[in-house]
Automatic annotation (TrEMBL):
Protein name: Diaminopimelate epimerase
One Pfam entry name: DAP_epimerase
SUPFAM superfamilies, per the entry: Diaminopimelate epimerase-like (SSF54506)
Membership in a protein family: Belongs to the diaminopimelate epimerase family.
Provenance organism: Ureibacillus chungkukjangi
Coiled-coil segments on the chain, per record: none
Keywords for this protein: Amino-acid biosynthesis, Cytoplasm, Isomerase, Lysine biosynthesis
Residues the record marks as active site: C73, C73 (proton donor), C226 (proton acceptor)
Compartment(s) where it occurs, according to its Swiss-Prot or TrEMBL record: Cytoplasm
Class of enzymatic activity (EC top level): isomerase
Highest taxon above the source species: Bacteria
Site keyed Could be important to modulate the pK values of the two catalytic cysteine residues: positions: H164, E217
Family matches, as PANTHER family: DIAMINOPIMELATE EPIMERASE, DIAMINOPIMELATE EPIMERASE, CHLOROPLASTIC
Reactions listed under catalytic activity: (2S,6S)-2,6-diaminopimelate = meso-2,6-diaminopimelate
């Protein structure tokens, strides 16, 4: 049977998107692993499923490239937000995710008429049990040196709701990713700290309202961008006076976003704003667990997004390769 998949990305974080009314239509694990192989049209970071919801306008599931399932994905949510809003002819919608129903809306373009959407990132928790993480019977880790990880990098553990370890680093740790890679691979293998693994982001302060973030994503590896990681990084930067504005520009290897951080009496309100680009559509023949690409068609939207990448290169030329 032939089915149509869209290829989409938020900040270069690339996914296939599939809309279905049957949550058990296919073996999503095997299908995702096949779709995401690098030799299959350059692969992808995962599969976004758009499904019916009893409590929202639609439901989103996120299957990572390795077949594991993520509780949330900020970049993917922007792409799903666009798909749902355009299909329903609405400017705003509610999307059900694993942990919460989240508000999404169409936004004014950040750059060059690129389709842009704002999505709520929630819930937020600094409790180590929410990641989960174990470290010396502590309940939280905020901007703290952890000698087992690094003698110089202060780390914060936070779930949004995906688990994140955020390190504020000097220029050398952005120019050379060796330390981040070694630590990330350790923490996503057999270790005594994170039994389910963790997303590891290194944050380099650029200006009072701008940061650069590189993320090793659980189940993926180094990725062009991770939406929840960028939002968590903006929150950690704001709480520790790395930035001093509520709206933070976040550059990453795949583009840039804006993160709005509102610190409230009873918590935080986080909003991720960035592109939702549809690059192409693919027809895939699916029979049992055998898959084959039948045809593809480009949209032309990626050429427009290249202007965003030009800005990233210009702004990060002094420290990011």
């Amino acid at each position: 049977m032939e089915r149509t998949f869209l290829k989409v990305h938020g900040s270069g974080n690339t996914f296939y998107l599939y809309n279905t009314s049957d949550e058990n239509e296919f073996n999503w694990v095997e299908l995702t692993k096949w779709l995401c192989q690098k030799d299959n049209h350059n692969g992808a970071d995962g599969l976004l499923l758009v499904l019916p919801s009893k409590s929202a306008d639609a439901k989103m599931r996120v299957i990572n490239a390795d077949g594991s399932e993520a509780s949330m994905c900020g970049n993917g949510l922007r792409c799903v937000a666009r798909f749902v809003c355009e299909n329903l002819d609405k400017q705003e919608a509610i999307i059900e995710t694993m942990k919460a129903n989240l508000k999404v809306r169409k936004e004014v373009s950040l750059l060059a008429e690129i389709p842009t959407y704002a999505v709520e990132i929630s819930p937020v928790s600094f409790s180590l049990t929410s990641l989960p993480m174990e470290y010396k019977q502590q309940t939280e880790i905020q901007h703290q040196i952890i000698p087992e990880f690094s003698a110089t990098v202060p780390y914060t553990a936070v779930s949004v709701p995906n688990p994140h370890l955020i390190g504020i680093v000097e220029q050398q740790d952005i120019q050379n990713n060796a330390h981040q890679q070694e630590l990330s691979q350790h923490l996503n293998g057999e270790n005594n700290f994170f039994k389910d693994g963790v997303n590891v982001s290194y944050v380099y302060p650029m200006k009072n309202d701008t940061i650069f973030v590189r993320t090793f994503e659980r189940g993926v590896g180094f990725t062009n961008a991770c939406g929840t990681a960028m939002t968590a990084s903006a929150l950690v930067s704001r709480l520790n006076n790395i930035v001093d504005t509520d709206v933070v520009t976040v550059f990453n290897p795949g583009g840039f976003v804006k993160c709005e951080v509102k610190i409230l009496v009873d918590g935080y309100k986080l909003t991720l704003i960035g592109n939702a680009t549809v690059t192409s559509s693919y027809v895939v023949d699916i029979m049992d667990n055998e898959f084959k690409f039948v045809s593809s068609q480009q949209t032309g939207e990626q050429k427009l997004y290249e202007k965003c990448l030009e800005l990233v290169k210009k702004e990060t030329a002094s420290f990011a390769s």
